[in-house]
C-alpha cells in the first residue's frame, strides 16, 4: 500500500487537504474498478483492491474512525467470490468516506494494472477530483474519442488557463493565438 498517495495527483490532494485549502473535509469518495475475473482462487475483492485506497483515505482524514458499514456481493456473476463491496466510514470529526471496490469492468477491456481509480475530496471551501493513474485526456469529437497526453500542448496551456480562471486571474487575450 501507499502507491496512491505517492502519485503526483495523490500527493497534491493530500497536500491540499493537509494545508486546509479545501476547508473542513466533509466527504471522501473513492472507487477502484478492475476487469471481472473468473479465477476462483483469486484474492477477495477487499484484499485485491482495498489496501491502497484504505491507506490513502486514512492518511487524508486525520481522525479516528467512529463507525464502518459495508455491504458486499457478487453483482456481476463472473466469479464464485464476491466481486463488489461498498464501504461507508464515518470519522469522529464527521467526515464520511464512501468507498467502492469492484471487479466490474468487462473482462476484455484494456485497463491499467491498478484499475480505474477515482477519488473525490469535498471540503467546506472547495472540492477536488483526481484520477491518479490517468495519463491522458479523453477528447470527444465527431463521434470518436481521442486520447491526448497530459503534457502535450495545447492541453498543458489549456489547463493552466483553466486554473488561472479558477483563481480569478483575468483570461489572457493572446491565449488562442498561442495555440496556433
Average pLDDT, rounded to a whole number, is 80
- Main β sheet profile: 6 strands, mixed
Strand content is 25-35%
Fraction of residues in helices?
10-25%
What is the radius of gyration?
Answer: 19 Å
Low-confidence stretches: 175-180
Q: What structural category characterises the helix and strand content?
A: alpha+beta
Tell me the distance between the termini: 44 Å
Task: Give the ordered list of helices and strands.
Answer: HEHEEEEEEEHH
Strand order of the largest sheet: 2-3-4-1-5-6
Count helical runs. Answer: 4
Give a count of the beta strands, DSSP E runs of length 2 or more.
8
User: What is the molecular shape?
Assistant: flat
Structure description:
- The structure is a single chain.
- The protein is α+β, with helices and mostly antiparallel strands.
- The protein contains 4 helices and 8 strands.
- It has helices spanning 8-19, 45-60, 155-166, 175-178; strands at 25-35, 65-73, 84-91, 96-105, 116-123, 127-130, 136-141, 144-149.
- The strands form 2 sheets. A 6-stranded mixed beta sheet has the order 2-3-4-1-5-6, with helices on one face. The protein has a two-stranded antiparallel sheet with strand order 7-8.
- A hairpin with a 2-residue loop joins strand 7 (136-141) and strand 8 (144-149).
- The radius of gyration is 19 Å and the shape is flat.
- The relative contact order is 0.20.
- The model is unreliable at 175-180 (pLDDT under 50).
Amino acid at each position: 500500500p501507499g502507491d496512491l498517495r505517492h502519485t503526483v495527483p495523490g500527493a497534491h490532494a493530500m497536500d491540499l487537504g493537509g494545508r486546509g485549502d479545501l476547508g473542513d473535509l466533509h466527504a471522501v469518495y473513492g472507487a477502484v474498478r478492475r476487469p471481472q475475473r473468473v479465477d476462483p482462487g483469486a484474492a477477495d475483492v477487499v484484499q485485491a483492491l482495498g489496501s491502497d485506497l484504505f491507506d490513502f483515505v486514512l492518511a487524508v482524514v486525520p481522525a479516528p474512525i467512529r463507525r464502518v458499514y459495508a455491504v458486499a456481493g457478487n453483482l456481476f456473476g463472473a466469479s464464485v467470490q464476491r466481486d463488489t463491496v461498498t464501504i461507508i466510514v464515518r470519522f469522529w470529526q464527521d467526515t464520511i468516506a464512501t468507498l467502492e471496490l469492484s471487479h466490474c469492468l468487462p473482462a476484455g477491456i484494456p485497463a491499467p494494472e491498478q484499475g480505474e481509480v477515482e477519488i473525490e475530496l469535498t471540503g467546506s471551501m472547495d472540492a477536488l477530483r483526481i484520477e491518479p493513474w490517468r495519463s491522458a485526456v479523453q477528447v470527444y469529437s465527431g463521434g470518436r474519442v481521442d486520447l491526448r497526453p497530459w503534457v502535450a500542448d495545447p492541453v498543458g496551456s489549456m489547463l493552466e488557463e483553466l486554473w488561472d480562471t479558477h483563481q480569478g486571474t483575468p483570461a489572457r487575450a493572446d491565449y488562442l493565438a498561442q495555440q496556433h
